[in-house]
Amino acid sequence: MNPSNPPQAAEYGGDEVSAIVLDPGYSTTRAGFAGEDAPKSLIPTYYGKYNADGQEKIVYGDDVFVTPRPGLSVYNPLNKDGIVEDWDMAEKVWEHSFMSRLTGTKAGNPFQNGLNDDGTQEPPEEMEVESDEKPLSDSPLLMTEPGWNPAKAREKTIEIAMEKWDTPAFYLARTGVLASFASGKASALVIDIGASNISVTPIHDGMILKRGVQHSPLGGDYISSQISALFKANSPQPITITPHYLISSKTAVEAGQAPQAKYKTFPADKAPDASYRALLEERTLAEFKECVVQVWPGPTRLSAPGPNGIPNEDMARTYPGRPFEFPDGYNQVFGVDRFRVVESLFDAKAAVPDPESSFPPPTPAQTIPELVKASLAGVDVDLRPHLLANVVVTGGSSLLYGFTERLNHELMQMFPGPRVRVTAAGNTSERRFGSWIGGSILASLGTFHQMWISKKEYEEHGPNIVEKRCK
Amino acid sequence: MASAGDVRDMLDLPAEGQPRPHKKQKVVEKRPEGITRELYALLGERAPPIAINENKYKGRPKWMNKLRVRPWSMAPFTNSARSDGLVLNHWQRKHESARPPVAAAQDESRMDVDQPREEGKDETPKPTEHDYAFAKYNVKPRLPRRYTDEEYDGNLKNDGWSREETDYLVDLVSEYDIRWVIIADRYDYQPKIDTESEENALVPAKQHRTMEQMKARYYYVAATMLAIEHPPSEMSEAEFELHEKMLKFDANRERDRKDLAALQINRTADEVREEAMLLEELKRITSNEQNFITERRELYSRLEVPISVGNTTMYQSSAGLSQLLQTLLQADKSKKRRSILGDGAVPSPAGQTPNAAGSTGRAETPVTQAANNKKGSTASKETHQAVRTLTPAEEARYGVTHHERVSAGVQFRSDRAQRLTQAKSNVQTQKLANALAELEIPVRLFMPTERVCKDFEKLIQSVNMLLDARKVSEKVESEIRVLEAAKFERERKAREAAGLPALPRPEVKTEAEDGNTGISASHPSDPLAAAGGSAQSGQDQQNVAREASNGGDGNHKRSASVLSATSESNKRQRR
């Protein structure tokens, strides 16, 4: 076959080898079979730890949210940059993501599973060996990583996959590349708005351009902190969020009136940890983001004067407000404030000040337009117009109302010359799971199967092979 | 009752003149299923615009139900694009050896219907025997051979690039399949010189390589290797082209280009707006230009009509005239179509570029002047600017002329000159033509420039005058002759009466008081200047005149020649 001739379109095709795609994010971990259109297993990356009967127990998955166990504390194995810190727990959480829904627990020894409760016979010896089987021994595994993942973490990942899970073949792909694949592009500028990070990744021919990768911590969690800051400074009265598990009953109240609810109280020894409460407060904030928060659509910034002389803030004030009811029944209509909490993604000066927040005030370089600018400055000039014409927006937090519109305006103002085209999947799940879907596409392609790192190759070259193969 | 036949009989019509019109056939539409007869009758002829048919699942065609379900199985396969023999599993059609022959035949007939995907897999008893369908996509670009140590030392040494770094670059190029964007992105060469010194010392020593530097180096290496493999004289055309391209790579130029591209992409909104405006303007100008060119082409094709030379007898009858009209109409139509098409095939002098139209020679005709006005070129500006007055020399140079009265419309200067040769009577015209033929001046001027035309006009005028003079002189001479004959007769009679012998006839004398004085002097004929249009004609003219006057000295021979007539008249005048 001549390399200059493109293959005919009809020749492209998938070839599914029942590979598993694992897309570990900071907030959620997605796993599913390649070739499907959404991950079958979606669990929070947070895990809970508590003591029961003097033993340390660990809760994974959605179970974390359900029961406020005494002393339950919540952790995340990833650090704020989205890089794994606690490898042991990360491995467990990831394992849970595919074991619980996809591969299932292996059939145990039939003599020990309680169904054959004969008790008279000794179990045969060879059965013991079988029960020792590892979770992924017959599924290739495709994992994702952020573009700034250090080499050490990559090697550790393949080590876990090969040695602990015994996968026959493994590949490590960048989230940005996969997100661009999910929107059908081999070259794109991927803007990923995640929970802990926003990142801008230039992709050329299915490979990331490392010098153009930019990321900053102004992700969904930062927006939550901005909302909290807003609640603290709320005008009729500061709002405190009481999570659902602390409410036993509530009655409807007028907007702006003090809540009338009966609260549950936990004695000090039975109460869960503060981190648990923070996690559940975060859920309420997520709901608030989905229902109320809105990005000022532009074309100019919220603080700037509008096109007809009226300041944009005044224009925003004329928009009808949006009501929101908190778990304790307190409800309020949010007006211009709902624009303010996300304005700092585009305009660092517009951040809601909060000295107690764990996030330092954002610098101008951390805003999305600046990230895009820095990212484009890191790639070749000839590529920039093409990248700007293929901007792909992905990540759950990009679902903020009016986000893509504003992004489009910002980019067009910054680069008035070249054509700017922002692509964002309209479907919610396609936006949230963009990189997983790209992985699903990639791992089910017949042409991809030559790229897997096989177990044999791993044994031959060691974990360092991931640097050579997953470029 | 009268039938149609009776009526026909009465009216003397043929028995069956025309077939009777058929009765409109009533179209009976089939009643769709799922609707009662009564309801369908109520609907009338026009079906309602909504679909009455119920949606239902189409299902498989019936013949398919008879077929057996073909089993699939999870089968292992290897990929020949891999070197490690990794075995993966995928679903594929199960091969059945013990298949009933009928079912097998049916199976095969169906297979070619729905088999885009697993060609080659179906018939395989063992998956390993057939190549993996996707292995053929594992392609690599063709790169020149790697250099050996001697080749490097002989041809490829470079001060800027160490051997190690060149190796690194060539490795990267083959690893990333010459995708320079990625190569430049991943390029991270660590010189290995001072491994014992600490990390910090290494950092400043490292130099940043731009993509252009890498390209220049690699292309040089690759071109050299290509030339070593095959000397340029033995290369195939494609190879030679590649070799040339790589050798001619200019890093500086490429860098400049990229600088410009960066400027282009970092334009401000104002600059972009201005550019858009200018582009719009440019578009307007080019479209105007286009219009102008097509208009001018049309004009030229109109001017190009050849002058007919054939005789006109065939058009003198009315049939001939109508035929002429037809052909003219035809020609007109085809011309119109051609001008609409605007193809360049129109045989016209408009093949010249619009720039050539601005030259000075063009500006002479009023048509192009008008066109130039539209275009706003410099030539027309000069002719029309009242502010700038031209010296006579400049006027002559640019061909500027001033007319007292300009007749409307377009005309050829040569036409005007030719009109002069047409006298009132045919005899006179013939005489004029004879005179011109004797002077070897064509009736239709070769080069009807301004000056030539003017001189031609003068020539014709003087020829006319000479002809007139000759006519008068002939008349006078004949009168004299008659009178002299009469006188002679009278004298003879007188002598006879006196008895004297007869005298010989006296010589004929011309008279100075003919009324033709000053003709030649006031209108010096200038035949040579008119014919040649040369600058030295003045002197020639004098010579000719002198010669003519000398030649005619004392010679009384009459001839039809104008020149001799001139000399005679001169002589006469002198006397």
Structure description:
The complex is a heterodimer of chains A (471) and B (575). Chain A folds into two domains: 1-102 and 134-181 and 432-471, ATPase, nucleotide binding domain (Nucleotidyltransferase, domain 5, 2-Layer Sandwich); 220-430, Actin, Chain A, domain 4 (Alpha-Beta Complex), CATH 3.90.640.10. Chain A has helices at 63-66, 87-103, 125-130, 151-164, 175-182, 220-232, 274-291, 312-318, 337-343, 368-377, 384-388, 403-414, 428-432, 434-443, 455-461, 465-469; strands at residues 20-24, 28-33, 41-44, 47-52, 55-59, 73-75, 141-145, 169-174, 188-193, 198-204, 207-208, 214-216, 247-251, 260-263, 322-325, 331-334, 391-394, 422-424, 453-454. In chain A, the strands form five sheets. Chain A has a six-stranded mixed beta sheet with strand order 3-2-1-7-8-19, with helices on both faces. Helix content of chain A is 31%, strand content 18%. The two termini of chain A are 25 Å apart. Chain A contains 16 helices and 19 strands. Chain A is an alpha+beta fold and 471 residues long. Chain B is built from 24 helices and two strands. The longest helix of chain B has 49 residues, at 450-498. Chain B is flat. The chains are: A alpha+beta (471), B mainly alpha (575). At the A-B interface, helix 15 of A face strand 2, helix 7, helix 11 and helix 12 of B.
